[in-house]
């Protein structure tokens, strides 16, 4: 992983916002509109996390969340080998969109570390804008295929037929992905999965979260993953809809002609 091997503090420091500073909420909103990612610190307990989440989003419940809407993410010891539950184990967690199997995934995800793992548990983040640009450059045909409707089905029996790349009416693009046992692919998309995974790997950046640190991301733009870990690693997660204007997805880089108008043959 070329970028994931870079100095872990770079992405955190580059996207850091001091949540205790005046007008921090406005700064966070502006940065999410620009880059889709904000890193934070000083969140050492559940009350801190809930207070920040409530400032920025209308919290939406998750099947595993507590009544306040927050979900404790840890190795439960009983979910590791169940499809769709890798986040509650200690193994590698592949790059994905949170709640990819519902018709409209929550727009924002706040993830905060309460207790880091003794070893492992690094966060791997990939900007969908970079993933899309790499895919278009290396194999435009793959990018076209992953933008075709209903080329993926994410979730169990109550999941959702969709596509990885969705072009909005204004030309912006959003990303949706899962790669576990609850992801099924159209025969036309299956051959291009190595290309997609390669673009994600080349776009990943590593963060090693310490206690009280976390990140807030646009769940329709960034893909998040995790390395395997040992010990009682604990994080709190909030999902929700922004309390401020946030354009859908991202503007592609570089701006390109519609994918369907031009294809480049590539080896799969």
Automatic annotation (TrEMBL):
UniProt keyword list: Antibiotic biosynthesis, Iron, Oxidoreductase
Domain TauD/TfdA-like span(s) in chain numbering: 21-238
Cofactor: Fe(2+)
GO process annotations (BP): antibiotic biosynthetic process
GO molecular function: oxidoreductase activity
Name of a matching Pfam family: TauD
Keyword Oxidoreductase set for record: yes
Domain of life of the organism encoding this protein: Bacteria
Protein name: TauD/TfdA-like domain-containing protein
Organism (species): Streptomyces rapamycinicus (strain ATCC 29253 / DSM 41530 / NRRL 5491 / AYB-994)
